[in-house]
Design goal:
It is built from five helices and four strands. With 190 residues, it is α/β, with parallel strands linked by helices. The two termini are 29 Å apart.
């Protein structure tokens, strides 16, 4: 595997904004400037109307519009949340999840291996997450085994997932940025 290019945070924010705009179909209403000649009551009403239309433009509801991501222990919790609340979460990005989602042979008897779930179980085909993405860097000193283990267990159970071991990355910010970048390219596309 080759090392992927890390996209700067500003570009990730632009990508996220573009995804939001493309998924909602329209841009938000223009926000009125602070320098206005309207009376305070008229300005408050205009601001309330703008806030309502902006919220409407950017608010999507339902499982198909819900994603959760996390890094390290947060990745553990994101992955467990997606299985625990399948009727609420369609997409999960779990970047270098530690042990503790399901029982694993790693770190037995420690806080880090206190499972949240007994197993990866799909309640029904309708509630199966649409996209599960796990990734970990080859230089990660903590979470390679658990990440790959979760991917293997899901594969054995026929649960679609994408699990990547990414060359040259460790347990840090560059890995998290790359994980989010890769994940955001695959969600909310339907």
């Amino acid at each position: 595997m080759s090392k992927n290019t890390v996209i700067p945070k500003a570009a990730c924010a632009i990508l996220l904004a573009a995804l939001l705009l493309s998924s909602c179909g329209s841009a938000p209403a223009e926000v009125p400037s602070a320098a206005t000649t309207e009376a305070p009551d008229q300005q408050s009403a205009a601001n309330a109307e703008t806030a309502a239309s902006t919220t409407e433009a950017f608010t999507a509801s339902g499982t198909a519009s819900t994603a959760v991501t996390g890094v390290s222990q947060g990745g553990t919790e994101a992955l467990a949340s997606a299985f625990k609340w399948q009727d609420k979460i369609a997409y999960v990005g779990s970047f270098a999840p530690s042990t503790g989602v399901i029982p694993t042979p790693f770190y037995k008897g420690s806080f880090w291996n206190t499972p949240i779930l007994d197993d990866f179980k799909i309640d029904s085909p309708e509630t199966m997450p649409r996209y599960i993405y796990l990734c970990v860097g080859t230089e990660d000193p903590y979470c390679i085994n658990s990440t790959l283990y979760y991917g293997e267990i899901m594969d054995k159970k026929g649960i679609p997932n994408r699990t990547e071991l990414i060359e040259g990355y460790d347990h840090g910010n560059e890995m998290w940025e790359l994980g989010h970048y890769n994940f955001l390219q695959k969600v909310f596309l339907d």
